[in-house]
């Protein structure tokens, strides 16, 4: 029987503007009649030929509340628009790195990922949808702008209502739509990704290290997010770890009430357990599996900036890089410059991009970049086009295995060799939008005045002299596309920096991010909070943040 396509009249919704990584709104908003349908139609319209006329797309998400409903809608709308084949994770489950890997290994035309990443889930919390292109990476700005423009004028979406697929059952579902074939393959959520990890790392060595005569003491925490099944397969089945090495490995629609963000505040259970116990490594991943946090014994915290720099320094102990060579490094602008020192020592190019993984893709595709990261717990390589939490944990295991040293020793040696980029980020979550916008405007005006350069600010016995103030802009070296207004930077003569920007991943209000970085060549064993105190005070003074936001303290410090 051939199924028919129905055009359903609809009207635009306000605010379907993708942020740093897709569209994120409350579940209640996505569940409104036609809201999700509209957005999916706009994705396909923006993709045009890339996504229709028999195209292959990967579809999956992080298991959060509303996933199955959204996948059902995506299937029906893809059918209505002439997509040829969908690869859908079993029960809709696919981590963000797994989607990227699947797009690449299947030479698919793109993928639709259902996630609000590190944002909380459940009926009262967040849902999200984003599109990844055929290179496996998040859609670039030009594409998401097109989606947004379409969302403002949409008049109808196309749907095939008669398609019902059992997401639980692995296998092929064939349909005929308007005389053309439409296939939905329900696939194993983890197999393809696990194969990729086995190609990248030396699983034989890692297995002996993890579960040999002196088993590694690990606590791998999936925070009830999507990585649970991946963690179980890789760490337990492949590397021989025991059940008590992994926790929270069942993806739950509300993440069990946890905030699935692997940082010192939200992964508190991991931090407390690792500091009280005797562990060689603690690791956590976010809801969709692209972020990671690495802890050493007694919860020694590896900042994501240092994590990236250390991996860069030891890049040769990972078989993937040995085989493919090393082609350049990159970090997002707010990320501390620890990486740059390693790049210099190794004679590698290093790029400074705006916040968000989408800006790394072109460089990777052009073979100018093989390892990159963000201060926001994102680390990854050109094996895919997303950051990759489990990959980062396996990279650290490889370094530990190679050096036979503890995480703390590895970091301290790194600082002795390169100096240390002290770093902290203050988040002021869910502030009122208007005063935050005003603060950013006023601050930009202040720091871009010619007489700002050369001014001196003193606090806590330290004096810093302004070298530059600007709103960061980036020209993509590959396609020349320009991204402006990517964050206010105040850079001092000694290289220390204050960066301020508004988050693009929240679902309501405004979140202010304040990033502070100070470099010390020899004084490398201080406490970050003490070392950075003077600069933090200077940042609050220059920006007048407490006055604008009414906040005296941040919600999260990392
Ligand atoms: C945040 C981070 C950014 C990251 C983005 C997506 O964006 O700062 O570095 O790429 O989240 O990560 P923003 O605009 O809120 O600062 V994820 O794991 O939420 O896809
Ligand atoms: Co994420």
TrEMBL record:
GO molecular function, one term: metal ion binding
Cited SUPFAM superfamilies: Phosphoglucomutase, C-terminal domain (SSF55957), Phosphoglucomutase, first 3 domains (SSF53738)
Residue ranges, annotated region (Disordered): 1-21
InterPro entries associated with the record: A-D-PHexomutase_a/b/a-I, A-D-PHexomutase_a/b/a-I/II/III, A-D-PHexomutase_a/b/a-II, A-D-PHexomutase_a/b/a-III, A-D-PHexomutase_C_sf, Alpha-D-phosphohexomutase_SF, PGM
Domain of life of the organism encoding this protein: Eukaryota
CDD domains recorded: PGM1 (cd03085)
This protein's name: phosphoglucomutase (alpha-D-glucose-1,6-bisphosphate-dependent)
């Amino acid at each position: 029987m051939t199924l028919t396509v129905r055009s359903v009249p609809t009207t635009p919704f306000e605010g379907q503007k993708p942020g740093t990584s897709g569209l994120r709104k409350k579940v209640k908003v996505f569940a409104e009649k036609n809201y999700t349908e509209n957005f999916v139609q706009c994705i396909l319209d923006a993709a045009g030929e890339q996504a229709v006329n028999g195209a292959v797309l990967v579809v999956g998400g992080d298991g959060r509340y509303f996933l199955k409903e959204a996948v059902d809608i995506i299937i029906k709308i893809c059918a209505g628009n002439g997509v040829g084949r969908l690869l859908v994770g079993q029960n809709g489950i696919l981590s963000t790195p797994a989607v990227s890997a699947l797009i690449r290994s299947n030479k698919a035309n793109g993928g639709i990922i259902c996630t609000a990443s590190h944002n909380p889930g459940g009926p009262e919390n967040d849902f999200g949808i984003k599109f990844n292109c055929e290179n496996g990476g998040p859609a670039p700005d030009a594409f998401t702008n097109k989606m947004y423009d379409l969302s403002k004028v949409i008049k109808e979406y196309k749907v095939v209502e008669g398609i019902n697929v059992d997401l639980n059952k692995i296998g092929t579902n064939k349909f005929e739509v308007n005389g053309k074939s439409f296939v939905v393959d329900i696939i194993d959520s983890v197999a393809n990704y696990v194969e990729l990890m086995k190609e990248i790392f030396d699983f034989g060595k890692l297995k002996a290290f993890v579960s040999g005569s002196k088993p590694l003491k690990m606590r791998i925490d999936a925070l009830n997010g999507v990585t649970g099944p991946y963690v179980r397969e890789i760490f337990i089945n492949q590397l021989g770890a025991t059940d008590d090495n992994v926790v929270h490995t069942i993806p739950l629609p509300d993440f069990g009430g946890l905030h699935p963000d692997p940082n010192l505040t939200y992964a508190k259970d991991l931090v407390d357990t690792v500091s009280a116990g005797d562990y060689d490594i603690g690791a956590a991943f976010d809801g969709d599996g692209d972020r990671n946090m690495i802890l050493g014994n007694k919860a020694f915290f590896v900042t994501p900036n240092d994590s990236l720099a250390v991996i860069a320094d030891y890049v040769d102990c990972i078989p993937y890089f040995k085989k493919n060579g090393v082609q350049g490094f990159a970090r997002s602008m707010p990320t501390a410059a620890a990486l740059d020192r390693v790049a210099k020592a190794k004679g590698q190019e290093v790029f400074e991009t705006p916040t968000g993984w989408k800006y790394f893709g072109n460089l990777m595709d052009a073979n100018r970049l093989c390892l990159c990261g963000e201060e926001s717990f994102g680390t990854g390589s050109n094996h895919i086009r997303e950051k990759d939490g489990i990959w980062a944990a396996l990279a650290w295991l490889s370094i530990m295995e190679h050096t036979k040293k503890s995480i703390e020793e590895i970091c301290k040696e790194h600082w002795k060799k390169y100096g240390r980029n002290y770093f902290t980020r203050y988040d002021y979550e869910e502030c009122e939008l208007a005063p935050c916008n005003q603060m950013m405007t006023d601050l930009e005006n202040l720091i871009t005045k010619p007489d700002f350069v050369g001014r001196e600010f003193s606090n806590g016995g330290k004096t810093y002299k302004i070298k530059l103030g600007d709103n960061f802009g980036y020209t993509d070296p590959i396609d020349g596309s320009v991204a402006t207004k990517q964050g206010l930077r105040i850079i001092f003569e000694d290289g220390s920096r204050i960066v301020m920007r508004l988050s693009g991943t929240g679902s309501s209000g405004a979140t202010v991010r304040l990033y502070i970085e100070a470099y010390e060549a020899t004084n490398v064993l201080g406490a970050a909070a003490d070392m950075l105190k003077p600069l933090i005070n200077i940042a609050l003074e220059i920006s007048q943040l407490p006055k604008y936001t009414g906040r005296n303290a941040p919600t999260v410090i990392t």
